[in-house]
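Per reviewer request, we include the raw input and output of the structure prediction for the construct analysed in the revised manuscript.
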Amino acid sequence: MLSPEELTLTNIRKELEFISSAMIILIQKYDLDAQNSLEIIPIARKKITHSKDYIKFLELSLEGRILGEMAMMIEKETIIKED
């Protein structure tokens, strides 16, 4: 996870790319075929057979969500400052 000093859009995007790559590996490994984001956790719970992989999947999901929200907040602050 990035430190508060590292929270820039560029750093967040890089971190999100890393998270996406790690998630894709798990998605392919366990054939997680959810039709929408609301289905992914129940499908992952059912299909991911190794607890360490399931925990990693949940950690990556949460970290991605947090970083995505941080990026949106930074973008909003930037737009407000420009106005």
